[in-house]
Fold:
Amino acid sequence: MNALHKICLFLLGIVSLTGCRYSFDIEDNGLKPCLCIKGYICADSLTNIEVYKAVPVQFAGKADMDLVSPAYSLKRNGEEVEVSSNGIDNYGISLKSEGFKEGDNLELTFSADGLETVVTSTTIPDHFPEYTYKMYNDEDGNNCILLDYKDDKDSEDYYGVSIETRRTIQSHPNTSFVIYGSALLPYAHNDLSLDQFAYAPVVSHFGNDAIYLWADDDHKDDTYEIKYVMSGMSSQTTEAAIRLHLFKLSKEMYNHLYAEYDSSYNPFSYIGFSSPSFAYCNVMKGCGYFCAYSKKHSEWITIYKK
Amino acid sequence: MKLFYKITLFLTLMTAAAFEAPGQSDIKPTIKEQMQKTHLHFDINFIYDSSIALDIPTDAKPDPERQTLEECLETLFKDTGIVWEIHRKYIVLTHKDKRRKPKDYTIFIEEQQDTLSESRITALAGRNRNMTQTGFKKIDKKTFDLGFAVLSSPDVIKTLQQLPGVATGTELLSGMYVRGGDGADNLYLLDGVPLYQVSHLLGLFSSFNTDVVESLDFYKSGFPARYGGRLSSVVDVKTREGDYEDYHGLFSIGLLDGRLQFEGPIIKGKTSFNIGLRRSWLDIITEPVSLIISSKDDRDFRIKYAFWDLNANITHKFSEKSRLSFDLYGGRDAAKFISGEGYEEYDYGTKLEKSYYNDAAMGLEWGNFVSQVNWHYGISEIHELSLKAYFSRYSSLFSFEEQVKEGALDEILNSTYKKGGNRSRTSDVGVKADFSLRAGERHHIRYGAGFQYHIYSPDYFTDRKVSNDGNVIVEQHLKEYDRKQTFEPAAYIEDEIVLTDRLTSNVGLRYSVIFTDGIAYHCLQPRVALRYGLTDNTSLKLSYSEMVQNDHQIASNYLQLPTNFWMPSTGKIAPSRSRQVSAGIYSSLPHNIRFSAEGYFKTMDNLLEFRGKWGIYPPIHLWEEAMIAGKGRSWGLESELEWSDEKTSLAAYYTLSWSQRYFEEFYPDWYRDRNDNRHKLTLTATRKLGKRCEVYGSWNFHSGGYITSEALSLAPEEIGDWPDTFYTMPNNLKLPDYHRLDIGFNFRKTTKRGNESIWNLSVYNVYCQMNPFITYIDADYEFTKENLFGFNFTGEAFGIIPILPSFSYTLKF
Structure:
């Protein structure tokens, strides 16, 4: 597609000859400082929610970022739960709690002096359903896994999968070591820009791992195909294995991760020519995300052994 | 919102008062009432200026039973200071002292089809006031004939964009976002047949050739039941029949395009034709210019772009009551970008070792084709039938082709060839019958039924061939398509009712059913409009209408590219629906001043936004998964103030509006629409300078739209670190306000042969305001004492339309 890109660049060049760039004032855009929530809630795990003060970008690095007189309440299914808090780097506050289970509805209210009170909520989904898998290679030599799972037909469900890898390397005849990592997407997986038949899953990032996302609406037959590449394979690799981390996501979590994906691949996003699907926020009167998931993982599956 | 409640309350009270108005049978009849008698007996209509006082009681008693028309008129207007003149079925009234006639009869002729009471006695100058419908604007041929427009070519869409309640979106892209609509929800009708795409050259020109346009009815609310299929507006363009007696036409040549129009009789007095043709000649300029530019480089580069359209009409009159016409419209845009690049590798700088060559081409095409047959038949004096059969097709194509060759010593060793694209066709085949029945003095009933068969067929194709050492190692031919068909029968009935002398209403119901994907969507759409004549010069109106849209534009971006395609509602995608309440006051003030103010509140359900896998075009096999449904709502107040005399006309259009969206997948609450332009103001002025020269000016302003930007930031963790940035809600960053001044001059001359010639000079964007086309937030790094973290964020805008002078020469013959 090299030449096509050149054509596009040339056309943009022509347009730029007649056009001109200028700065405009973003101070008068009605934005004001607000609270920012960063919270991923996992079932049966310690919950850590971070809260910061966010300011319009033109004041970044220039404004007072302290949260003054913070007050908060976290409710589970309408009842307040105990929360501990402590200050963290970057002028933020960390709220910790635990013991949240599948199906819990959580609502966080947070206020601080000079900032509007924010309210946000999410529901922890149940675990990834029962599944089986089949492994094979496609015609391009990519590793493939076909997941067959039991989706609940009566509810809207959102899923995610990430692939953890483990390689055993024999560096010397008597010395070997193990490297953990994550699988990579096949080369040119996003060639969808022109080729509609290209393999182009919705892949976002959660922490440092790539996470394949889908909603049950998209896959009526309750199967999902994952293609991946095992990185770092060499003649010294004696064993390679993968482990699937299977996520069930709250709607908020799915929308948030989908927005991250969209933000990475949408060529029209930053210039105002596309739907705002790259910008999800479920913190009313504030910014950030407050969303939940549950997670389980498979056994290690050996895919190569010398 | 308080204002709307007040208006609604006021209208309700006035409506109630109107029903209770006492009869006036014991009072002397007014001139107007006597005129009505004359009208009913002789089946003639009056045209007069609103400044003529006709509500004066009179002793004159014309006797239509015994007198001729002339005698009746003489009796009625004797000693009133009003002079009358008969023009076929129309009586033109003027002040005795002024002798100034109303200017255009054709408007009135069209108007009488819309409003029964006004068809009896109407005032030309107050046509918007006298219509029952709210949100209505009629634009006649004369407006376009002035010839003032962007790039010297009069344009329907650009004219509509000036009106209140119509947001224009991004500069150049020719969007028309009516009262919070999404741009794909305007019903464009060309002689009653829907068009899916109406722009040439990314919207710089519209598909309607004003040389053949007779008039245009534009509705933003109060939609009569005979219209359906889109949510936000109706643009009903009617073309002209040819002259039945003489041959004439025009020829026009402008900076970017040329036009030719010719009309005349085929059989004198019986059959006529009218043909209009336009073609751009940008390709004549762009191809050699790009070749010259590329000749200085190592690569070939060519750009070709052209558009054309053709309107043709043949009408045959069997009798005064029976008329058959055949209309044809075809229009096409085609753009091609071709690039070739090569380089060679030499061994030690002398011997040719290897050569590479890369050819690429990209093509874009889009256009409409419409053909239709109409039969208009007068069943009786009061009952008319219009029967129509039509075929309409919108097609678009995006294609690319690339070949990479690698060779040595003139021998091709390896090559890769790839070709692909998407093609979309949306076809409608339809028949409809519309009846018009004037049932007594108080009812004008319209009813009808129609049937549409829609075929949607987007497809995607790709061919790939890879050769190595002359051997084909990969050869692929892939094709994906999604063909859908829907059937859409519809029926309507509406009645224009004169409830009292002051109160009229248009009550209607439209029913359509959409058979798609094995299911049926039944859609009942009630329409009600009320008009209360507060005084002779002032009306109050109220309307409620529901509209349903079955066709959805599938686009991965907001650029109006031919990569978009249309698809119907399916089991997963329900039809879109809008509901709108509108109310206003419409007044003709003394000294030829006209004023109106109209408020509205509108809701929209099942609007679609793209949230799919990203590509240049939406994935054809996954389009239903790629679209998500949400809601919209908008409200606002629009006002118009106009003044005109024989030489000058001035107009000011102002809009105060709000437009919001709710898509749960993006934000769990309502957020601003990207075209939420709070204020919009358009000022226009036209002045005749002597007999031969006219000057025109138009200043357009609207508050900036919105884009979505990571406009909030946390504190950077370390000095020099890029701070974490966040979105608050969609469309959170306001863009700079838009404003632009256009001016134009017409110089008219009569040639030696007695033909009229017009030189037009137009200047678009006179003071070269670079309104933003692309906007984003940019950051630079500068470490200062005041900014210890070093980042400075600024808004950056990129404007592409500078001052654009243009000219055209038109010869009417």
About this structure: The longest strand of chain A covers residues 158-172. The mean pLDDT of chain A is 86. Chain A touches chain B through 78 residues (CB under 8 Å). Residues 34-123 of chain A form a domain with the Immunoglobulin-like fold (CATH 2.60.40.10).
